[in-house]
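Hey L., structure's done. Input below.
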Amino acid sequence: MHSVDELLAVVVREQNDDRRWTAIQELHALGTREVFERAVQLCGSPRADERVAGADILGQLSAWTEDSIPTLMQLLGDSEACVIESAVHALSQKQDARTIDALSLVAQHDASNVRWAVATALEDLIGDERAERVLLTLMRDGDTSVRDRATFAVGSLSDHDTPRIRAALAERLRDEDRAVANEAALGLARRRDARAIPYIAGAVESAD
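Output:
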């Protein structure tokens, strides 16, 4: 059994993702007030790597969700994209509608990895019109990976169905990236929207 100090040191300094997240899971299993308070302290550190560690730990502390959200929301205004990304991923574990407005602002961040994280964070909140609007905007993002993640979130991970969603999926059938267009076709097919048929027929007949 590792001490809290030993586990925190691994989370901050370890470069191996598997070992780092194993330590975070051990902290999650402990789930004590001390673990929560030490994570909050890390979030206030002048060092970006420690703020990232704090956010990653808080994201996994389900027993302290109410107390964690204010700290994580504050990190959304951080100067470092890596810290914001970790805070967004942590908030995605909370699935709290109170975070939508703040995440909507972060969805406009210059860093594509941050926008990608927002698409992940909002996928289970799409029933809220605010989250739906952000995801539909991210489906038109200039970065292919962001468009792909948002289209996957809207089309495949959610059964939410509105005329806006169907129109956005139909638009992505013309995406320059085949993976994005495929996700859009699947999303329309799951909603039994006939606009998917010509695309699917063409894909079946294509050489690849």
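DSSP finds 13 helices and no strands in the chain. The CA atoms of residues 145 and 203 lie 21 Å apart.

-- N.
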